[in-house]
Design goal:
Number of domains: 3
Mean pLDDT: 81
CATH class of the largest domain: Mainly Beta
Shape: elongated
Distance between the termini: 109 Å
Number of strands: 12
Structural class: alpha+beta
Number of helices: 5
CATH topology of the largest domain: Glucose Permease (Domain IIA)
Low-confidence stretches: 153-162
Length: 288
């Protein structure tokens, strides 16, 4: 019984001290001498392993070394994936248009009524016959918006320097061919301009971007507020280069020409110019 009680346990063995000595082979001179226990060896080894793992993870995560890992995409690959995704979306949209076209051709050949895929609108009323009344909440929001110095266009030019529209120099947004002219009688309050693919759309005057968003009908649209209560609008863009609140100079790029939105039949820019809430014919002021 005494022998069993004197037998050391596992924890006791971990605390046993061992001496590690390093001797020189020629002279048997002791060079190094370590006094360690098993517990010390496990602790030091575990700590070094954890530090090594952390170091490897940091190198992989924050250095270009990660690009050499098989299967890890680099920046160019990620960009290509994004571009391919956009192209696939555009291809699906074009295939859908083609299928609709063929369906209508088949319907016409068989003597049936072709499907109308356009937006259904109430054509019994013109927009001039519809009146809108401002609510108190709308007036409060408008007042708060106008008081925001970010959109206070009176700060851009000293008082007394406001010029008439005829004295202003308008910068053409794009150079191209006008395919659909201004016609307020047909509710077409701007110009449709066809230009080269990926052409840069430029702002016509100095101003502040007050709208940069996506709509179902007009796609990517950007609106710029100018002095003298002038507003220029650019529709059907493929990409917007400015955000709401940005101040832009005349001729500064604000978008890329495109074919976004449902109310478009091909890549072009729909450009509108408004003065005191009324549409203007841009051809009266700008040479395209």
């Amino acid at each position: 019984m005494a022998k069993k009680e004197d037998k050391p346990g596992f924890l006791d063995k971990l605390r046993y001290k061992y001496r590690l000595s390093v001797y020189r082979d020629e002279t048997y001179e002791e060079v190094l001498n370590f006094r360690l226990s098993r517990l010390n060896v496990f602790t030091i080894g575990g700590t070094l392993s954890i530090l090594l793992i952390i170091l490897v993870v940091m190198i992989v995560a924050y250095t270009p070394v990660r690009n050499f890992i098989p299967g890890y995409p680099d920046e160019h690959t990620i960009q290509n994936i994004y571009e391919n995704s956009r192209r696939v979306d555009s291809l699906i949209e074009e295939l859908d248009k083609r299928d609709r076209y063929f369906d209508n051709i088949k319907a016409i050949i068989s003597g049936k009524q072709p499907n109308n895929y356009d937006n259904v609108q109430d054509t019994s009323k013109r927009y001039t016959e519809i009146t809108f009344e401002r609510s108190s909440e709308d007036s409060a929001i408008r007042q708060k918006f106008e008081e925001n110095s970010e959109f206070d266009l009176s700060l851009m030019e000293p008082k007394g320097s406001i010029r008439s529209i005829s004295q202003m120099h308008f910068f053409p947004p794009v150079k191209g061919l006008i395919t659909n002219k201004f016609n307020s009688g047909q509710d077409h309050y701007g110009l449709d301009i066809v230009s080269a693919a990926n052409e840069v759309v430029k702002t016509t005057l100095d101003g502040t971007v007050t709208m940069a968003t996506w709509t179902l009908d007009t796609g990517w649209i950007i609106e710029v507020q100018h002095l003298n209560n002038l507003i220029s609008i650019y529709k059907h863009n493929s990409e917007l280069l400015k955000r709401v609140g940005d101040y832009v100079k005349a001729g500064e790029p604000v978008a890329i020409i495109g074919n976004s939105g449902e109310l478009t039949s091909g890549p072009h820019l729909h450009f509108e110019l408004w003065y005191n809430g009324a549409p203007l014919n841009p051809e009266d002021y700008i040479s395209f």
